[in-house]
Amino acid sequence: MMEMTSGRSESRQEVSVSSGPHPDVRSRASIHAARMALRVEQVLSAGAGLLLALLLLLVLVTVGLRYGARTGFAGTEEAALWLFLALICLGLPLSLQGPFSLRLDILTRLLPHEGRRIAGLCADGTSAAAGCLLLTGGAEAAAALRSVSPALGLPEHVRFWFLAAGGALLLAMLLLVRIGEGRGFLGLLSVAAGATLALLLPQADLGSSMLPSAVAALAAGAALLLGAPLAHCLLAGVMFAIPSGSGLSEPAIVSTAASGMSRFLLLAIPFFLLCGGMLTLSGAGERLVRLAQTLVGHRRAGLAQTALLTSVFFSGASGSSVANAAFGASTFHPHLVSHGYPPERSAAIIAATSVLDNVIPPSIAFLLLAAATDISAGRLLIGGAYAGLLMAACLAVAIRLANGDSNRSARATGAERSRALLAALPALGLVVVVLGGIRFGIVTPTEAAAVAAGYALLLALATRPTCGGLASIFRQAGVEAAAIGLLIGAAAPFAFLLAVDGVAGTVLDLAGSLAEAPWQVLLLCNLVLLAAGLVLDTGAAILLLGPILLPVAVGAGIDPVLFGVIAVVNLMLGGLTPPVGMLVFVVSGTTGVPVGALFRVVIPYLVALLCALLVLCLLALFF
């Protein structure tokens, strides 16, 4: 299961202590290192927030000049991509721990104490290897480049120095954190092991008969099972493909990762993350709750239906299911429980409705799929709107059947509904900005996201928030965007290996031999996606499987946009299923409901979402 808290916890009292003055010295050193790690983290997150603010300003000024003065700046897109790459590199050391490190602890939780220590050492060695790869590969790539960027005329090697600096910061953060935990020796040992791997692997010749992509997958999978962060596993795994005849060198790996991060479409991700934070800060979230309550609160299981409808409204501003799950768990869970809902059932409703955020636009999942497969992002977002409404309808039926005739509120009057609608209109305007701007070709998806973020910022400023509150939203969105950008970049070399090894063609041939009719191909793809959703993060599964399965579906005559929508809906179900179940863990951590009980109670809503997936598959086959 993916960790939702920062890092692995190991008591500092377990550190062996000798006699004499050494314990006090060690304690002081640990305290100083922990404080320094915290300061570094604060500085890096503040830098990420500042870069995000500059990015937003740059894109908004560009859109304003284009439509206000019919002019613009040359090289705006290139400047934005450089800023985004710098943001990712600043956030790179923060990927070591926290909710976006995406650690898998299925195996490590079952190990005895000594086994967990060894697994932790291996996981840190993986992170150190990834840091050394970025440091040495970035430095070598920078030293070899003499060209300048086409639009701005800046030296291209600067971009690779960004990545080299990010790798160095990751190594420094790893040491500081482990010294702060009283495990400085193990931290030094892991860095030494990672550096040794980065030094020896490019010189080795394994002579393996396996495909380089298979070697990389096995190495990354083993590191993931030992508890290393997902992005670090992908980078370190590709290193093991070097002596297996992959044709990639360390500079080539870093260059491919940098290319994966340098797509203008990806800039929409931090802007949509910013939208969700600003919406909450402005108080618009509470107004959406009030509107939903006046519309459906009087129906059967009215409070639960209100939570569902609020999730639909909130989906049009957040784009992040994790953000929606946290919002719903803190906002609705106490009210549901106080009105007679069992805590497990209340938490299950919140977790299930949170799935909608990555389907109803703006959807970060669709942006990742568009970047990985070159499907039109606009068409995916519009298709996601229809799919999200279908899923909401199925969930409404499940909530009605599962919660009986209790928990109704008084029917709202027409005047109350009108007042609630007027109060919520500013927040609902975000949906118009995003979908309207994209649908009518006024702005690109990235520009629409920036305009929506600017609009949400104005809503927040109207409530006169503190500077600290605004800065916190920018910092959080910047760090989250850096983590997602790092994952995209780390997946790019792995995707390159899959392409070189012809994995997509092999899968296509295999699908052709196992399935002849389109429905068989679609069933096979769905089974693969469902299995991947059980153990992989949605973003990683999209980046790795999207380019492989899309040609298979298109070859069977299935519309690529419809298949993209089906793939995202399918993978989002993984947020409700063990062992990963990220949405279940977020809601469990916020509400205190045991994870096991929550997985059981969420089953009726999971069945409802599977029914929606079935309808989408039928539409793909017959229309």
The SSE order reads HHHHHHHHHHHHHHHHHHHHHHHHHH
Percent range for helical residues?
over 70%
Through-space gap between termini: 38 Å
Radius of gyration: 24 Å
Decide which structural class fits the backbone.
mainly alpha
When the domains are counted, the total is 2
Chain-averaged pLDDT: 83
How many β-strand runs?
0
Low-confidence runs: 1-25
Please tally the helical runs, counting DSSP H or I stretches of 4 or more residues: 26
Largest sheet: none
Shape: globular
Strand content: under 5%
What does this protein structure show overall?
The structure is a single chain. The chain is mainly alpha-helical and 623 residues long. It has 26 helices and no strands. The protein is globular, with a radius of gyration of 24 Å.
Topology, element by element:
Blueprint: H1 22-68, H2 76-91, H3 113-144, H4 157-180, H5 184-200, H6 212-225, H7 230-241, H8 250-261, H9 268-282, H10 284-296, H11 302-318, H12 321-331, H13 333-338, H14 343-353, H15 364-373, H16 377-403, H17 414-439, H18 445-462, H19 467-500, H20 503-514, H21 518-535, H22 538-555, H23 560-572, H24 582-591, H25 595-601, H26 603-622
Helix pairs in contact: 1-2, 1-4, 1-18, 1-19, 2-4, 2-19, 3-4, 3-5, 3-7, 3-8, 4-5, 6-7, 7-19, 8-19, 9-18, 9-19, 10-11, 10-17, 11-12, 11-14, 11-16, 12-24, 14-24, 14-25, 15-16, 15-22, 16-23, 16-26, 17-18, 19-22, 20-22, 21-22, 21-23, 22-23, 23-26
Subcellular location: Cell inner membrane
Transmembrane segments: 43-67, 79-97, 118-138, 158-177, 184-202, 214-243, 264-284, 304-327, 348-371, 377-399, 420-442, 448-467, 479-499, 519-549, 561-585, 597-622
InterPro entries: DctM, DctQ, TRAP_DctM
